[in-house]
Design goal:
heterodimer; A: alpha/beta; Glutaredoxin; 2 domains; 6 helices; about 40% helix; B: about 170 residues; four-stranded antiparallel beta sheet; 1 helix; about 45% strand; flat
Chain lengths: ~230, ~170
């Protein structure tokens, strides 16, 4: 390369005589810089995934269905387990307001269902039988119709359609307990899982003592009712 | 001699660093996949597979076979479900897209019963679903987002009714 700009302030002579060392320093600096970039990228990737996982879990908000270890019915981990059941007021099929608070002192099964849900229709005769069996001990079921159409009372046509569909099923299945409309607005506060049926067993003090999602069995449901009654 | 080897050393260090980064990223990916396996996913119940594009004679009704895949373990009601309350699978095309759905031909459903109640007979689709969409397109290229509306369940739970986009580029020639 040779000397450059003789007489300048920068010691080019010194630099040029030690040029191979200078080149190696440049290469090594570049390598260290690349390593730093890789390390940062790796950390940033890990941090992003960790935060995404935290958001997804949102431990206080979302219920999670976890496959059972024995291959049986998935276990539902509800964020409401052991906590007060969220209060609500919904319209029944006659347009009257019904609140969960009205049932304080009773054991309540808050049951999310829909007219188009096959498993819900299958479990309804069990619910009817168990409600009739335990009503005298202070047990009630609130059937929360969750049609998934986000119908609001203000949308009279959609609301009337949902009401008619629910009333038909109530008559066919001889449901003796209150059926309330507008479950879409409530499901988020009850754990956010869209799956139906979803059942929340509330004791006499208003605490959720058990929760399940999906079709289980009549004996499972009865066991949870007895727990809610304090048996 | 020492000066000649240093650049090679630098290359070796860079290579090792790259391998370490890739291994770290792959490990993070594996952890994430394992976490996802533990939750029953509620996305991708039904996916539109193909075609992405179809050429038809402009102004003439032409059938396009639309292929969908229903996630394993799930079923959706057929276009003619067994009960009035059940939500049928329907295909629709938006107005004003230059492509009109003249008629959709749906396959017949398969009779399906839930293990918990064999008396409840359902008419459903599972696995691959092919809907013949007979369309009429004006001349030109039309990027259309048709819609498939359906409601999916497995043997124990039902998911809410849902619509997915069916993106297809229809070229009228």
């Amino acid at each position: 390369m040779g000397n450059r700009r003789a007489g300048s302030c920068f010691p080019y002579n010194k630099v040029m005589t030690s040029f191979p060392t200078r080149r190696n320093t440049v290469v090594l600096t570049a390598v260290v810089f690349l390593l730093a970039v890789f390390a940062w990228a790796g950390w940033a990737n890990w941090e992003y995934r960790r935060q995404a996982a935290e958001r997804a879990a949102a431990a206080n908000q979302q219920g999670m269905l976890v496959p059972a270890t024995d291959g049986g019915i998935p276990i539902y981990n509800s964020p409401l387990q052991g906590r007060p059941a969220p209060a609500f007021t919904l319209d029944n099929l006659s347009g009257q307001k019904v609140s969960l608070e009205n049932y304080r002192g009773k054991a309540v099964l808050v049951n999310f269902w829909a007219t188009w849900c096959g498993p819900c229709i299958i479990e309804t005769p069990w619910l009817v039988e168990l409600r009739n069996k335990y009503a005298a001990q202070g047990f009630e079921i609130l059937g929360i119709d969750t049609e998934g159409d986000d119908a609001q009372p203000s949308d009279k046509a959609a609301w009337a359609k949902d009401q008619a569909a629910a009333a038909k099923v109530v008559t066919q299945m001889k449901m003796p307990y209150p059926v309330l409309l507008g479950g879409d607005s409530l499901s988020q506060r009850y754990g956010g899982l869209d799956d139906l049926p979803a059942s929340f067993f509330v004791d006499r003090k208003g605490t959720v003592i058990a929760a399940s999602v999906g079709l289980t069995s009549e004996s499972d449901i009865e066991g949870n009712i007895r727990k809610a009654l304090g048996d | 001699m020492a000066r000649m080897k240093t650049p090679m050393k630098a290359v070796a260090i860079a290579f090792v660093a790259w391998v370490a980064f890739v291994a770290f990223a792959a490990h993070a990916q594996v952890l994430k996949s394992a976490a996802e396996d533990r939750v029953l996913a509620t996305t991708d119940e039904v996916k539109y597979m193909y075609p992405a594009q179809a050429s038809v004679a402009a102004g003439k009704p032409t059938a396009i076979a639309l292929h969908f895949l229903i996630r394993q373990g799930l079923h959706i009601n057929s276009h003619t479900p067994s009960e009035e309350e059940l939500i049928p699978t329907t295909l629709s095309f938006p107005d004003g897209s230059g492509v009109r759905l003249d008629a959709a031909t749906y396959p017949p459903g398969v009779t399906y019963t839930l293990p918990a109640d064999p008396s409840l007979k359902l008419s459903v689709y599972t696995g691959e679903l092919i809907i013949q969409a007979r369309v009429v397109a004006t001349a030109g290229s039309h990027a259309v987002k048709a819609t498939l509306h359906f409601q999916a369940c497995d043997n124990r739970v039902c998911l809410p009714p849902k619509s997915i986009d069916v993106p297809i580029n229809v070229i009228g020639k």
